[in-house]
Amino acid sequence: MGAALERLAPERRRQLRGFRTGEGCRLIAAPAASQEGQTMPLLDLASNDYLGLSRHPGVIAAARAELESSGLGAGASRLVTGTRPVHLQLEAALAAWLGRERVLLFPSGFQANVAAVSALADRQALVCADRLVHHSLLAGVRASGARLVRFAHNDLVDLERQLAQARARQPQQRRLVLSESLFSMEGTSPDVPALAALCRRHGALLLLDEAHALGVLGPGGRGLGHGLEGVHLVSGTFGKAFGSGGAFLAGEALLGDWLLQASGAFRYTTALAPPLAAGALAALRQIEAQPRVAP
Q1: Residues 49, 66, 91, 180: which is the catalytic one?
Q2: Which CATH class is domain 88-273?
Q3: Which among 106, 220, 254, 286 is least buried, having the fewest CB atoms inside 10 angstroms?
Q4: Of the residues 87, 240, 244, 263, which is catalytic?
């Protein structure tokens, strides 16, 4: 381990980066200073707080009220004593907003994606993943034991070729496709309606990671997969446009119950902190009150 670290060039070594908050919604970079030696306000274009809701007074007030009511942490998993009314309220509100039968909350997006893949695939399954999907989805594939193949980024011709070959080789094999609706590092999106139709045509399940699209893209910010038949499971986070923390999976009632019964990533973890859930619920209400339809 030490030798491997020594081989890393200084410019390739990862470092922790952050800000200290200034007045109001301003973010001040610690090393930045003006010629007079005073700190300078900076515009943060690197965060995922797309709508600025992490500093919205209503979101902060909701989180503060829940903090006073329920405490800082949930203290246990959802199946023991960790479930609070705000968890159920947020899950119900998200299900109604997204038009999904069941929503389950997770403490992190990484955890939600690992749980999602593990619920949809097993050692006998084939997973076709976009070449640039998030690392958490690939970690889920490894946890599931499924066979992994990659298709060229947003290339539905390549994906169809792989699905057709798999279908001809093993007609009864479960096939799962992994993609994102908005790839944050590239700023690209697949043709989601065509992707969903392709998966239906070949009898493949589709897990769509909407983490970077929810709140900003699709009808009313509901994501690019909203209302499409063939999107079996949607993963989303609250740490981006919602300005809070945590994540969720949204799908059919049967799949939600399967996750509840069989997902270790859901069962064996402390529930999402109640103040974060309350903040996410308040952010959702803000998004609902000011809908925007993306082109």
Answers
A1: 180
A2: alpha beta
A3: 254
A4: 240
Active site residue 153: no
pLDDT digits (tens, 9 = 90+) for 77-135: 999 999 999 999 999 999 999 999 999 999 999 999 999 999 999 999 999 999 999 99
CB 40, CB 33: distance < 8 Å: yes
User: Does the annotation count 47 as an active-site position?
Assistant: no
Q: Is 180 a catalytic residue?
A: yes
Q: Which pLDDT belongs to residue 21?
A: 53
Give the residue extent of every domain in the chain: 88-273
Q: Catalytic one among 66, 108, 212, 263?
A: 212
Q: Please indicate whether residue 226 is annotated as part of the active site.
A: no
Residue that the structure tokens 């060039």 belong to: 9
Q: CB within 8 A of 282, min separation 6: which ones?
A: 56, 58, 59, 61, 62, 63
pTM, rounded to two decimals: 0.89
134 is catalytic: yes
Which residue, among 219, 282, 285, 209, has the nearest Cα to 247 in the 3D structure?
A: 209
Would you give the DSSP letter of residue 226? Answer: T
Would you place residue 39 in the very low, low, confident or very high pLDDT band (cuts 50, 70, 90)? low
pLDDT, one tens digit per residue, over 217-260 is 999 999 999 999 999 999 999 999 999 999 999 999 999 999 99
Out of 209, 226, 232, 244, which one is annotated catalytic?
209
Say if residues 233 and 120 touch (Cβ distance below 8 Å): yes
Q: Does the active-site annotation cover 113?
A: no
